[in-house]
Amino acid sequence: MQGLAALYGALSSIVLVYLLSRCVTRASEVALHDPKKSMVTLYLGAVQRFVLLAVLFAIGLAVLKLDPLACLIGFGLAQLTYVVAAKFD
């Protein structure tokens, strides 16, 4: 069951990174016409990801009854992987 919780945390991280990349792409396109609107797009994307993370963890912990520590470790390791990959990219 802990493996499933870690996988859920990692998949949550993947979903959030996908949303981040989509938001950055959209903000880059908007920045060509209106830099201020681009900043608003980035801030709204950050709020959207924060709320989605809270909802995904609430579903995983409260509804699916997943192990909290394993879920957080899976999420954290996936985030760490993105940081390391970005450094060597």
Description of the structure:
The protein is mainly alpha-helical. It has one domain (2-87). It has helices spanning 2-31, 35-63, 68-87. It is elongated. The termini are far apart. The mean pLDDT is 94.
Give the SSE layout:
Elements: H1 2-31, H2 35-63, H3 68-87
The rough form would be described as: elongated
Number of domains: 1
Counted by DSSP, the helix tally is 3
Assembly of the depicted chains: single chain
Radius of gyration: 15 Å
Features:
89 residues, mainly alpha, 3 helices, elongated
Give a short overview.
The chain is 89% helix and 0% strand. It has 89 residues and is mainly alpha-helical.
